[in-house]
Amino acid sequence: MNRPSPINRREFLATSTLAAAGIAAGALAVPRIVRAAAAQPSTYKLAIAGSGWWGKNILREAIMSKACKVVGVCDVDATMRKEGVAMAREMAGDEPKEYEDFREMLAKEKPDILINGTPDHWHPLITIEAVKNGAHVYVEKPISHTIKEGRAMVNAARAGKPLKVVSDQTGCPTWTDDLAAMTLELLDRGASGLWHATNAGQTNWFDFTAAILEEFGLKTDLSPTTSAEWFKIRPDSAVRPAYSVLDVEPLSRTLGRPVRHWRDALREYRRQVDEAGAL
Ligand SMILES: NC(=O)c1ccc[n+]([C@@H]2O[C@H](COP(=O)([O-])OP(=O)(O)OC[C@H]3O[C@@H](n4cnc5c(N)ncnc54)[C@H](O)[C@@H]3O)[C@@H](O)[C@H]2O)c1
Known about the structure:
This protein is of the alpha/beta class and 279 residues long. The protein folds into 2 domains: 39-160, Rossmann fold, CATH 3.40.50.720; 164-275, 3-Layer(aba) Sandwich (Rossmann fold). The chain is 41% helix and 14% strand. The protein has helices at residues 16-21, 53-64, 78-92, 102-109, 123-132, 147-157, 176-188, 205-215, 227-233, 249-255, 262-275; strands at residues 23-24, 44-49, 68-74, 97-99, 113-116, 136-139, 163-166, 170-171, 174-175, 203-204, 222-225. The protein has a 5-stranded parallel sheet, sandwiched between helices. The protein has a two-stranded antiparallel ribbon with strand order 1-9. Helix 3 (78-92) links the parallel strand 3 (68-74) and strand 4. Helix 5 packs parallel to helix 6 (147-157). The longest helix has 15 residues, at 78-92. The chain is elongated and about 65 Å long. It starts with 15 loop residues before the first helix and ends with a helix. Residues 1-39 have low confidence and may be disordered. The structure holds nicotinamide-adenine-dinucleotide (NAD). Nicotinamide-adenine-dinucleotide (NAD) binds at residues 49-50, 52-55, 74-77, 80, 102, 117-120, 122, 140-141.
């Protein structure tokens, strides 16, 4: 059975397109992240705007991940700014530059990741400026005050930055709605024991991403990469099997119907999102 990865505050990168598809994508975590860039260095240049109480809590988590180098701390309050710098220095030995203006910091430091820990009314402007500068953004909640602000942030993040996805791992993405329905049907039939329950068909992550982009009408510069290339930039990544397709024939026989193909599940998911007015 495919399982979604747990949401983890320390996990800083994922594709919002895959997250948006709501498919149980075992290799990819689903954090509260707006994705904008595709280049994935082994040490991420990290900057923070708003190093107040909560911003520093997130900064601490980022430093503890050991995947980041803090390059910039921006706060309009000098005391808070210096506290952020001191944290980076003491915990990681980093020497981030201090900034009062987030625009200047983003332009000069070009961070891979920006933590946006400013007060709520600053979230949209700083997030949009950051994704325009090619950064991934961790933005605190509430992400925005209005739907329009939220839409503007998502639009900026979707503006078509390149996306590289591995194409040599084949599996079957499975929609959690289908998984839940099939599990209930099995229980209704009194089934017991171990079952393979996924959607039908198979695909690789690259083709899966292409299908999501197509289904949601998103235009992104998408190109394939290999697991070996991925491991060069993220050697600590979990090893995923090259082929993880499960045999759903026994399930189909027991249910007395074909198991839905993952592409049809994705189409149905998109229809539901559309119907809910969430697109
Ligand atoms: N996820 C959670 O559980 C959680 C908990 C607490 C707070 N928060 C959120 O975190 C955010 C920050 O909350 P806080 O309690 O740390 O507030 P805070 O006032 O302690 O910190 C905000 C910091 O941003 C700075 N700032 C303000 N405008 C700025 C600007 N334009 N550029 C740079 N810096 C600027 C302030 O000087 C201050 O140091 C809020 O959005 C809040 O809702 C989330």
